[in-house]
Known about the structure:
Layout: E1 3-6, E2 12-17, E3 20-24, E4 27-30, H1 33-40, H2 47-54, E5 58-61, H3 80-89, H4 93-105, H5 110-129
Antiparallel strand pairs: 1-4, 1-5, 2-3
Helix pairs in contact: 3-5, 4-5
Amino acid sequence: MPVLIYNGARQHTVSVDRKTNVRLIPGKNIVEAKTLEKLMDKKAGSPGFKGLVDDGEVEVLDDTVMNPDSGDLDITKMSAKEAKALVDAEPNLDALNNYLKAEEAGESRPSVVKAINEAISGIKAADESGGSTDNE
């Protein structure tokens, strides 16, 4: 199934009709291919969703970035740009640590490892100060 990376700060709902509604949460969102096709349809699609894609608020990744065994995202199958977008939108410390382990287990990309470490540091700093980050 396609993966949507939503870079917004708050939840956002897009729709085509009463039956096709997608609630985007910050970070990764997995949608059915038929739903994505409806949202992206040139004539009957969702102008709001298309606008989010055009503005870079939503990145659409195909299902080749999924691990077929676990059904989870495989950050090592993404381009560095896609991986950094995922990391920037990910508010979950456990997920970030898993991405870091996966990245370091293979041919790690320095820019991706740096982005993950910065995101982890930002979340830890916010937790220690009792504040929040842009990722929350």
